[in-house]
């Protein structure tokens, strides 16, 4: 296209912009390129599904974007990066990850983001899908849909005569890049029979616009397999026990299969450097050198001397582990290896090390207990202070690992860890301090977490989200006339969990830990017979407010 044609096309687009765009039954179609990427094809499927249900008439998909159609033609919703989007001046190639643009030009609505090539539900935590984010936002904000969880009971699709759009020109980027929670069997069994439980969870992840990126930082030293490679030839690489043996054999915890390292051993550090070089040669952009879990304190003379210097301080291995991290990162820079090293401030090495700078090719993740601390102001302030101190120390963006789960001492079957307000409010003040979070979310029943996940992802996109307003809307849309009773029910569950069950946090040598109540406290006081009767009464009162057999009643 020559310069004159470009100018004429731009002028035509300017003339048609500003007009009211109306989506009506039988007068709207979705348009994608003939060779559209798989996330765009999926976006078209989701858009036509929900828009057809809302309008009460099928919305077709047409392949081939071409050029702008006359005003008399049906309204078009054009998806993805394509020729027509470029003609409309939409370019997302240099935008931050997960950004999308919604723009009206004449009788066209453009929803455009940067997209990967993989079917999005197959690997939802890693497939870039900016256009799909835009589609869900469009359905929510302009059609009135809500996606609490997949299936009839969790979807809100209002019937509308038409959808009237103003002159839209919006570019949206999430406030937090990393928006992750567990999306597997670890976050509980699904609440109804489905053909593929994993796909249902994946679809929920997509609709909530959860993370499309994962920066690896989770016990990466396990991948080196030190025991297999070096247990016989280099026993000095492994932590020394008090009985004089080395930590090269299974001790009952899964990470011990890989051997617990001695972080005073410089020979081990060089092994890690060489491993990082190998990973970079295979195309890795990030290399996770975090020690394996449940790290044992080595009893060799050098390690004990390091602990002695840290006597009276929490996390006695901080100087050792962060000294190792600095060494590995600086060696990679010397070798001109273009890779980022990741390390977590965790357990015995959570404390900021004294006298050790963090190289600029290191990215730090910080472990904090997370939302369950919301009911403990002193613990909450300490966590925020630690996160911000690590940000200053790192000199680079950091992200966090939190533990709003029902695991270990909190794994009492059948007790709901419903706590959406805690999940929302905990992260809001951290906008600008962190890239985002992984919320470790083990539970026994997935339904306990659906509202936690919903509120969490709203806040991850917009840190100014009014959590109370989001929850009020949920109760109204899901339960209709029973909204007040169901709100009381959910809020009672949250109070019991965050205050009575998971809210007691104390410091240990490895950092904050939850102190749960005893079994008698749980079953005689927190969820004793009188409390169970009150909860059942709330549900009975709610059921009496709605029509028998209705969606609200079934919910």
Describe the structure.
This protein has about 550 residues and is of the alpha/beta class. It contains 17 helices and 20 strands. A six-stranded mixed sheet has the order 3-2-4-6-5-10. It has a six-stranded parallel sheet with strand order 11-17-16-15-14-13. A two-stranded antiparallel ribbon has the order 1-9. It is globular and about 80 Å long.
Give a nutshell description of this structure.
With about 550 residues, the chain is of the alpha/beta class. It has helices at about 5-15, 40-55, 85, 130-145, 195-205, 225-230, 265-280, 300-310, 320-335, 375-395, 420-425, 450-460, 465-480, 485-500, 520-525, 530-545, 550-555; strands at about 20-25, 30, 60-65, 75-80, 100-105, 110-115, 145, 155, 165, 170, 180, 185-190, 285-290, 340-345, 360-365, 400, 435-440, 445, 505-510, 510-515.
């Amino acid at each position: 296209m020559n310069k004159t044609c470009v100018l004429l096309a731009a002028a035509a687009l300017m003339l048609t912009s500003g007009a009211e765009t109306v989506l009506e039954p039988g007068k709207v179609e979705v348009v994608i390129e003939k060779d559209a990427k798989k996330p765009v094809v999926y976006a078209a499927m989701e858009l036509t599904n929900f828009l057809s249900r809302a309008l009460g008439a099928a919305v077709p998909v047409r392949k081939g974007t071409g050029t702008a159609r006359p005003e008399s033609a049906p309204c078009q919703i054009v998806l993805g990066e394509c020729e027509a989007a470029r003609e409309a001046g939409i370019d997302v190639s240099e935008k931050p990850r997960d950004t999308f643009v919604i723009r009206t030009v004449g009788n066209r609505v453009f929803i455009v983001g940067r997209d990967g090539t993989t079917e999005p539900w197959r690997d939802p935590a890693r497939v870039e899908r900016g256009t799909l984010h835009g589609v869900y936002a469009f359905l929510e904000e302009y059609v009135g849909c809500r996606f609490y969880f997949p299936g009839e009971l969790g979807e809100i699709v209002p019937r509308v005569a038409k959808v009237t759009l103003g002159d839209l020109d919006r570019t949206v980027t999430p406030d937090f890049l990393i928006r992750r929670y567990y999306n597997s069997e670890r976050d509980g069994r699904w609440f109804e029979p489905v053909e593929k439980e994993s796909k249902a969870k994946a679809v929920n992840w997509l609709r909530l616009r959860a993370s499309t990126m994962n920066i690896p930082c989770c016990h990466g030293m396990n991948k080196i397999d030190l025991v297999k490679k070096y247990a016989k030839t280099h026993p000095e690489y492994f932590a020394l026990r008090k009985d004089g043996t080395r930590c090269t054999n299974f001790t009952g915890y899964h990470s011990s299969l890989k051997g617990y390292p001695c972080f005073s051993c410089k020979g081990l550090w060089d092994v890690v450097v060489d491993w990082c070089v190998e990973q970079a040669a295979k195309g890795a952009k990030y290399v996770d050198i975090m020690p394996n879990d449940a790290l044992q304190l080595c009893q060799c003379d050098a390690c004990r001397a390091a602990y002695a210097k840290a006597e009276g301080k929490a996390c006695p291995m901080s100087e050792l582990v962060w000294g190792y991290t600095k060494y590995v990162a600086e060696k990679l820079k010397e070798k001109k290896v273009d890779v980022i090293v990741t390390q977590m401030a965790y357990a015995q090495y959570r404390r900021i090390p004294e006298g050790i700078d963090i190289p600029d090719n290191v990215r730090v993740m910080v472990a904090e207990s997370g939302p369950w601390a919301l009911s403990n102001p002193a613990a909450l302030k300490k966590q925020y202070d630690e996160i911000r101190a690590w940000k200053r120390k790192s000199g680079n963006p950091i992200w966090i690992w939190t533990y709003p789960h029902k695991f270990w001492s909190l794994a009492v079957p059948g007790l709901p860890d419903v706590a959406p307000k805690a999940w929302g409010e905990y992260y809001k003040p951290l906008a600008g301090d962190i890239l985002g979070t992984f919320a470790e979310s083990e539970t026994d029943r997935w339904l306990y977490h659906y509202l936690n996940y919903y509120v969490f992802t709203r806040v991850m996109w917009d840190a100014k989200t009014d959590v109370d307003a989001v929850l009020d809307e949920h109760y109204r849309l899901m339960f209709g006339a029973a909204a007040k009773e169901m709100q009381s029910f959910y809020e009672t569950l949250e109070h019991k969990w965050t205050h009575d069950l998971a809210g007691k946090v104390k410091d240990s040598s490895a950092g904050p830990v939850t102190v749960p109540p005893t079994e008698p406290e749980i079953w005689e006081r927190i969820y004793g017979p009188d409390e169970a009767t009150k909860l059942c009464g709330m549900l009975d009162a709610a059921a009496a407010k709605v029509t028998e057999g209705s969606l609200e009643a079934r919910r």
